[in-house]
Amino acid sequence: MDWVKVYDAPQVDDYPGLRVLFRLDLDWPTDWEYFRQDMTRRVRELVALGVDAIEVHNEPNLALEWPHGPNAWEYVQMLRLAYQAIKAADPTVIVVSGGLAPTLTTPDHRAINDLDFAREMLDNGAAQYFDAFGYHPYGFDQPPEADPAAHELTFRRVERLYALLESYGLGDKPIWLTEFGWLRDPAESGVNCQGDPALAGFEWMRVPLATQAEYTVRAFAYADRHWPWAGPMFLWNLDWQMYGTDIEPACSHLRWFSLLESDGTPTATYRAVAAMPRRVSAYRPRLEARPLLLPGQTLSAGNVPTYPLAAFCPNAVAVGQFQIVNTGWPAQVTIAVEPATLDAPRMPGVVVSAAQVRFGDRVVIYADVSDTPPGVYLLVVNLRTTFEGRPLSGNARVLLQVENSPINCPA
Q1: Considering only Cβ atoms within 10 Å of each terminal Cβ, which end of the chain, N or C, has fewer?
Q2: Which residues have C-beta within 8 Å of that of residue 203, sequence separation ≥ 6?
C-alpha cells in the first residue's frame, strides 16, 4: 500500500516514502474573503509539506459534517474555491471531491441519499472542480459481492455511483474509495456496548472479527477484478482504537473499524490484509483536456465545444481553449501538443499556442478558414507523454461550424 490518508498537517511527515491524501475539512463561511485567504494559506502549507492529493471536506451529504443541513449547491461552491486554490498553488496536486457517505434520505433530511446528492452536485457544475470523485463504500452487514440492486447499502453501491457518472459523460473520471471497511463486534473483545449511545445506529452493522478480515480481503480482490475506473482504496481505519477513552468512548463505532488493538497489536484483519495476494497496480492516469469556453462557444453532445465562424475569414482565429488537468498523476510531466493531420480536402489549418505543456497550462487552438467552404469540421489536437516508460495519449476536440453568413471575423 503506497497511499495513506491523514487529517492533520503535522501527520504528513509521519509517512515518508508514501503518497499522501489529505482530508481538508471546511466550515461554511460567513466571511467569503477571509475564507478565500484562509483556504489559500492552508493549501500552500499542504503543498509545501508535499501532499499528493487533497480531499475537499468529508461526507457533505450528512448533517454531522454539514451542520445546518446537507446542501449540494453549497458544497459545490466550496469545492470550486478549493479546486481553484489548490490548482493555483500546484496544478499537480490531485483534487478529490469530499467522499460521500452511502446512505438513504432520512425524514428529517439530516442525511441525503448519496446518489441524489451526487446528481445535484453534477447538475450544479461540480464536474469541472474535481479530478477524482470521492466515495465511502462501506460494507455494512453485507459481503462485498452483495448485489447493489438487491441491497441498498453495500460495498458495491459504488457501481451505481459510477453508472451515474457515466450518464453525465464522466465515465473516464476515477472514483477514489477514500474510506471503506466493516465494523467488528466489540463483544468479541470483551466490551459490552449493548444499548450504549456511542454505538447507537451502528449495532446492525456488526460482524465477527474473522468476517471483517475475510470481507476486507475479498473487497480488495473484487475491486481489482471488476473496477478499472477505481482509484486508490483507503481501508478505514488503522489506529482509532489507540485513542484514549477521554477522546473516543469505548463503544464509539470509530474504534471498531480499527485494524489495531488499543495496545497497538495487529488484529486478524490487519494480518489478513498484510498477507493477501498483491501486485503492482495497472492503473494508468489519463491525459485530460478540460474545455474552457470562449465567447460565442457552446457545448455539443459529448462535451465538445462548438464554435461558429464565417467562411473565408482571412486570418487564423482562436476557436477553442482547453486546460490540461491532473487526473491522478503522482508527478508533474511534460506533454506534447500537436494538431492532428486529417486527410480531407480544404480542411481548416490548425495551430496551437504551445507545443509542450504541463498540468495547469492552457492551450489555445487557432483555425485558418481562408480557403475553407462552409460546413462542420472536427478539429483534433493530440496530447502525448509517457508514464513509467509507457506511452500515453489523449486529445482535445473542437467542432468548427463554418458558415456562409455575415458573422464577423474575430480580430
Answers
A1: C
A2: 193
Residue entry with cell 473516464: 172
For CATH 2.60.40.60, the residue range(s) in the chain are 288-403
The Cα–Cα gap between 12 and 8 comes to 8
Q: Collect all residues with Cβ–Cβ distance below 8 Å to 232 and sequence separation of at least 6.
A: 3, 21, 176, 177
| Residue pLDDT, tens place only, 192-231 | 999 999 999 899 999 999 999 999 999 999 999 999 889 8
Say which residues have a Cβ less than 8 Å from residue 211's Cβ, sequence separation at least 6: 182
Highest CATH level, class, for 3-275 = alpha beta
Beta-bridge mates of residue 175:
133, 230
Per-residue model confidence (pLDDT) at position 348: 84
How far is 97 from 231, CA to CA, in rounded Å? 13
Cell numbers for 352, please give them.
496551437
Distance in angstroms (rounded) separating the CA atoms of residues 338 and 194: 65
Question: What contacts 76, CB < 8 A, 6 or more positions away?
Answer: 121, 124, 125, 126, 129
Is 326 within 8 Å of 94 (Cβ atoms)? yes
Cα separation of 186 and 194, whole Å? Answer: 10
The domain covering 288-403 belongs, at the CATH homologous superfamily level, to Cadherins (2.60.40.60)
Residue 280 has pLDDT above 80, yes or no: no
DSSP 274: H
Choose among 117, 136, 145: nearest CA to 176: 136
Phi and psi dihedrals of 307, rounded to 5?
-125, 125
pLDDT digits (tens, 9 = 90+) for 243-279: 999 999 999 999 999 999 999 999 999 999 999 988 7
Q: Are 368 and 347 in contact (CB under 8 A)?
A: no
Does the model's pTM come out above 0.70?
A: yes
Paired residues of 384 in beta bridges: 336, 393
| Sole residue written with cell 460494507 | 139
pLDDT value of position 120: 97
Q: Under 8 Å CB-to-CB from 349, ≥6 apart: which residues?
A: 316, 367, 368
CATH 3.20.20.80 in the chain is located at: 3-275
> How are strands ordered across the β-sheet holding 133-135?
133-135, 175-180, 230-235
Residue 30 is classified by DSSP as S
- All cell numbers assigned to 291: 474545455
- CB 20 within 8 Å of CB 2: no
Query: 245-249 long-range contacts, Cβ below 8 Å, gap at least 24?
Result: 249/196, 249/198
With 0-12 CB in 10 A as exposed, 13-18 as middle and 19+ as buried, what is 16? exposed
